[in-house]
Amino acid sequence: MNFDFSADQGLLRDELRKFFVNEVPLARSRTLMEQRGTHDAAAWQGLAGLGATALMLPEACGGAGLGALELCVLAEEAGRQLAPLPLASTMYLAAQALLLGADEAQQARWLARIAQGEPAALAAPLGEEANPGLLRYAGGLLNGDAPLASDGEAARVAVVLARDEAGAPCWVAAELDATVTRRRLNTLDGARPYAALGFAATHAERLAHADDALSLLQRVRDRAAVLLAFEQLGGADAALEMAAAYARERKAFGRTIGSYQGIKHKLADLYTANQLARAHCWYGAWALEKDARQAAPAAELALAAAAARVAATDAFSLAAQENIQTHGGMGVTWETDCHLFYRRARQYAVMLGSVHEWRERLVVALASQLDMENSA
């Protein structure tokens, strides 16, 4: 098991980092929050032009034909710049649901649009309560409300968990046309907005390979947890770098504050937490790659996803908090970018369900693994 990326993946990381630094500076997130925009459309199209929105998608539907590891590289680099892009909703959630639940013809119709750069959303509960709610699918039409959809305003298509005529959960894909209403929701991080979607006789297509809808939802959540963990890891590394840079230049009592033991130990703790999260993320990437290459769920994915999710959430939250503390009084002002990291860290901490739920899933997965070893 190789816990590192290949040389080609390293080159991809370098090119993506250049793109994000030049095209998606932190000021973009600040501007989007102030103007209440949906996403950085120019940067998103630029990313699509690089072929990044085609990562992990089959060549038959316009994808690059690459694996999950390349998408993990993209996620980490996007996280470093707090990119205000519909990456998580499109690539970690909607695209994964289509990869798992759609047949080849459906993938050719829907994934091709994602590969070309159309934003997508997933309308499904992502926390502990896996209840399709009030959405109803009957006669090819979708009706009801999805109260919480990431990037719901920007999305052109949506993958929706609903109930069919018999009351059973089912997955459908729908175009977000004029029959769909969108209402922006107030969130902590305005650069990663959410919306409530209302469907009124919206034409939709039932996914052909999604018979066990709730199992598919959990598999999508596990895949998204790994990818989001890489984005959190990128944010944690950037927050640490920001804190360390400030500690090297800010002086107190004639000395840079980084020379004081209290600051040095604080930054060392952040580095340790980030490296622990990185190890779990690499294991998660390996399990995700294995899961993507086989029809049945990878046995290691549930454990690896929970571990990556917990470690990355803790690391990003700690780095965002201590970055503010390192900046002192300036850290809580709008003039610095510290609050951008804190907003993103807190919002991502609950995006796929709380970290407490993922800790519980980690315990259950470890107990299951121990039982299997004892019975062997």
Protein described:
The protein has eleven helices and nine strands. The longest helix is centred in the middle third of the chain and has 37 residues, at 213-249. Strand 8 and strand 9 form a beta hairpin. Strands 1, 2, 3, 4, 5, 6 and 7 form a seven-stranded mixed β-sheet that branches. The chain has a two-stranded antiparallel sheet with strand order 8-9. Helix 5 runs antiparallel to helix 7 and helix 9 (301-327) packs antiparallel against helix 10 (338-348). The chain is an alpha+beta fold. The chain is globular, with a radius of gyration of 21 Å. The mean pLDDT is 93. The chain has a domain at 216-375: Butyryl-CoA Dehydrogenase, subunit A, domain 3 (Up-down Bundle).
CATH architecture descriptor text of the domain at 216-375: Up-down Bundle
- End-to-end Cα distance: 23 Å
**Count of helical segments?**
11
Q: Per CATH, what is the topology of the domain at 216-375?
A: Butyryl-CoA Dehydrogenase, subunit A, domain 3
Question: What would CATH call the class of the domain at 216-375?
Answer: Mainly Alpha
Helix proportion of residues, in percent?
40-55%
